[in-house]
Write a structure and sequence with these properties.
Elements lengths: L1 H18 L9 H12 L4 H15 L5 H14 L7 H28 L4 H41 L4
Helix pairs in contact: 1-2, 1-3, 2-4, 2-5, 2-6, 3-4, 4-5, 5-6
Length: 162
Amino acid sequence: MNYIKISIGIFAILAFSRFVPHPPNFTNLIALSFYVPIIFGSRFIPSVIFSLLLTDLFFGFHSTLFFTWGSVFIIGVISKYFNNSLITRLKGSLLGATIFFLVTNFGVWLSGYYEYTLGGLLNCYILAIPFFGYTLISTVTFSIIIETLYKFYKIKVKGKVY
């Protein structure tokens, strides 16, 4: 039952952030993908991906869907290696943003929007850099929010500091 409640909470937070108007790529997706497995455990990675699937039903499916979901999965899996301290978690979340950038833009390139050449691949990544800026800013912003809320929860509710 607890799994279902947490999964519904993950869905609500992710869905809310996708429906609220925001700059391109300025969402909590990367931070959630990174922090959900750290806080709740790896078994909740599918909850994040399923939440994306449900919201994608509303927004529509796209040619890079599996690259997006795949990068979320990779970010969730690597997060356990960055749980030593606040600084390593922030570095890990930024690595997650980089993984998302690399994987999803590779998917864009494979989808045929650019020439299937090295130049086309480089052009795809170069033209995506402005969006990557939003991704980095949002990842840091939401990571700090999650860190603050989780630390507050640990101190006030659990009586311990991590």
